[in-house]
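lol forgot to send this yesterday, sorry. struct tokens for the thing we talked abt
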């Protein structure tokens, strides 16, 4: 009779044990997800940063070349979705957007380029000091 009573008192214990194990596994999984997802975002932003740097560098090289050569060369066209902007100031004037100018002209080199890709922006600046 005691063995029957013992079995009846333990019938729900496997369900409770299973719920405890599943709760522990779910907690471990959610903790790992919270650790891994920010790292994946950081890796993605690093890749986007490389494209943004490439766009800014391309615009700066074009700007330096057209300024020194004093001739018109078509502005660079990027095949990816990266974009660039060129800003410059001439003779101490306020900085203006010169992205659509024929070339980067001025008596001194004073240009700043911004490259943007995937929400990440990187910048280069060249300033001539006399």
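and heres what i got for the seq, position by position
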């Amino acid at each position: 009779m005691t063995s029957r009573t013992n079995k009846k008192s333990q019938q729900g214990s496997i369900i409770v044990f299973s719920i405890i194990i599943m709760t522990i596994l779910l907690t471990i999984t959610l903790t790992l997800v919270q650790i891994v997802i920010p790292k994946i975002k950081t890796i993605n932003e690093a890749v986007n940063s490389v494209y943004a740097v490439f766009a800014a560098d391309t615009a700066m090289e074009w700007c330096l070349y057209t300024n020194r050569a004093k001739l018109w060369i078509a502005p660079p066209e990027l095949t990816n979705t990266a974009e660039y902007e060129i800003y410059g100031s001439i003779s101490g004037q306020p900085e203006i957007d010169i992205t659509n100018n024929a070339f980067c002209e001025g008596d001194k080199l004073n240009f700043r380029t911004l490259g943007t890709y995937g929400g990440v922006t990187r910048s280069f600046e060249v300033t001539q000091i006399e």
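The chain has two helices and four strands. anyway ping me if u want another try
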